[in-house]
Amino acid sequence: MNKQNPPDIINKQQLYKIIDKKLIKKLFINKNINSKEKEFNHIMRVIENCIILNEFEKGNINIILSLALFSLIATVDELHKVFNENKKHINLNKEEENEVFNYFIENKETKNTEIFEDAEYLDSLRNEIYPEAALLKCKYSKNSGIFTLFNQNSLKDKRPKWSIDIINDFGFNI
Fold first, then answer.
1. What is the mean pLDDT of residues 91-107?
2. Among 13, 25, 39, 128, which is least packed, fewest CB within 10 Å?
3. What is the reported pLDDT for 41?
4. Structure-derived torsion over alpha carbons of residues 8, 16, 154, 60, reported in degrees to the nearest 10
5. Residue 19, φ and ψ in degrees, nearest 5
6. Contact, 115 vs 64, CB < 8 A?
7. Total Cβ atoms within 10 A of residue 155
8. Which tens digits make up the pLDDT trace of 136-173?
């Protein structure tokens, strides 16, 4: 198993570079996440998990973080609408955009979608679902230290420290 420590620095600029903060705020407000502390914490942990896993799995962070944020959207039609109405707020090239859509439309798996799915799955203790290592797809997700860390954060509903900046940027009171 890989004994490296996860990266220490995660910041909001990684998100804002891919999807403008105006659109992120709009997505959160449309799904009432601005008033749901548990949901906000979950999304922030999944984003953090994505970034940490990607440090070792070496996927495309633009796609991975887009999957995490756009997973808030319920339907493919709604996703198309968001993309069409907010093109200037989404910084993905055509290939990246296609991969995001292919995942939501066809559930097409790639290295990037596997990183996202593991990051999401490793936050399922919040719903009293214990993740099984055998169901994880990425090598680093199965690392006992990462597995334990992500599960502890989920169980405790821990809010990542860096997400306080996002709360402050958006003026959320959670």
1. 93
2. 128
3. 92
4. -80
5. -130, 120
6. yes
7. 14
8. 999 999 988 889 989 899 989 899 988 888 999 999 88
Identity of the residue numbered 169 = D
HSE-up (13 A, CA, CB side) for residue 9? 2
- pLDDT, one tens digit per residue, over 42-56 is 999 999 999 999 999
Interatomic CA distance for residues 70 and 79, integer angstroms: 7
Q: Mean pLDDT throughout 7-25?
A: 82
Residue 90 bridge partners (DSSP): 19
Sign of CA dihedral 9, 15, 17, 20: negative
What are 100's two structure tokens? 């995001």
Q: How far is CA 104 from CA 12, 30, 99, in A?
A: 24, 19, 9
Structure tokens at 55: 């440090």
* Best CA proximity match to 66, nearest among 11, 118, 15, 9: 15
Integer angstrom CA distances of residue 157 from 25, 94, 115, 125, 129: 21, 36, 21, 9, 14
Decide: 75 and 12 in contact? Cβ < 8 Å. Answer: no
Say if CB 79 and CB 71 are below 8 A apart.
no
pLDDT of residue 8: 47
